[in-house]
Write a structure and sequence with these properties.
With 264 residues, the chain is α+β, with helices and mostly antiparallel strands. Helix content is 27%, strand content 30%. It has 8 helices and 10 strands. The strands form 3 sheets. Strands 4-5-6-9-8-7 form a 6-stranded antiparallel beta sheet. It has a two-stranded antiparallel sheet with strand order 1-2. Helix 2 crosses helix 3.
Length: 264
């Protein structure tokens, strides 16, 4: 094990009988309890902790391992270390896109426009947006948090979106494209949520295993005349994202449960 260097920091008692990694773990636990962390829940990198405390990588990893054993943090391969249970919460009562949800929670998401072009939609898209529409504008955007891919949005817009430039699409979410750039007012939307495995192509985009579980939010948006104007599929990592919906009572409740019958 490399020797731990002395730094200007007096946070660690290097002559103590308590191991350095245990002292570091204790300091991090106190900070987790006292200092609000980003909504993403990501802790400083190993390199940052090494520089801060003047300790070796092995000591940092032992400290993190101790926090993992106590259930305070989780290590996500290729992404870093996160507070256990830290999630982005997407409230479904408001019509908000992925970007607006993260900004509202104090995050600073990065976006990269991958595609914005006229394309032939697959049959399932035509079934939602209308078979008479022909070619539609297809937009695909990758979202990242602190440099790590977080979600992928694939959007089909009505053909008039072809008037929008690539530069405009880079800086405007899909609702902003429709409402601010095209003057199409969205009145309501239908949402469907499901889970699935990432699969090969999505795994490459999000840098996860192809067998990782992802959450899929499918949104069909309608204008004031009831015409479908947008179909978006948001795919996010299920480890750190959840959809929520608040409902007010009274709610209908079944009078009883039917017991399963068993054969004699």
């Amino acid at each position: 094990m490399p020797a731990d260097r002395h730094t200007e920091s007096d946070l660690l008692r290097r002559d103590s009988h308590v191991a350095l990694y245990a002292q570091v773990a204790d300091l991090l636990k106190r900070e987790i309890a006292a200092v609000p962390h980003p909504a993403s829940g990501r802790l400083p990198s190993e390199h940052a902790l090494m520089a801060r405390f003047g300790i070796s990588r092995v000591t940092v990893r032992l400290a993190i391992d101790l926090l993992i054993k106590e259930g305070l943090v989780v290590r996500k391969q290729g992404k870093g270390t996160y507070l256990a249970g830290s999630t982005v919460r997407h409230e479904l009562q408001e019509l908000r896109g992925l970007y607006d949800v993260m900004v509202a929670q104090g995050l600073e998401p990065e976006t990269r426009l991958l595609r914005f072009e006229l394309a032939e939609p697959p049959p399932e898209v035509l079934a939602r947006l209308g078979p008479e529409r022909g070619r539609l504008m297809f937009l695909q955007r990758l979202y990242s948090l602190e440099g790590a891919p977080f979600g992928l949005a694939s959007t089909w817009l009505s053909a008039e979106a072809s008037r929008v430039t690539w530069e405009q699409a880079e800086t405007h979410p899909s609702y902003s494209i429709l409402q601010q750039l095209l003057g199409i007012r969205i009145a309501n939307a239908r949402l469907a949520i499901r889970g699935r495995l990432a699969g090969r192509s999505l795994a490459r985009a999000l840098k996860v295993s192809s067998k990782s579980a992802v959450l899929v939010l499918e949104r069909t948006s309608y204008d004031r005349d009831g015409r479908p104007r947008e179909l978006t599929e948001f795919v996010v990592n299920s480890e750190s994202y959840e959809f929520t919906l608040s409902a007010e009572g009274p709610l209908p409740i079944n009078s009883g449960l039917r017991a399963a019958s068993t054969a004699a």
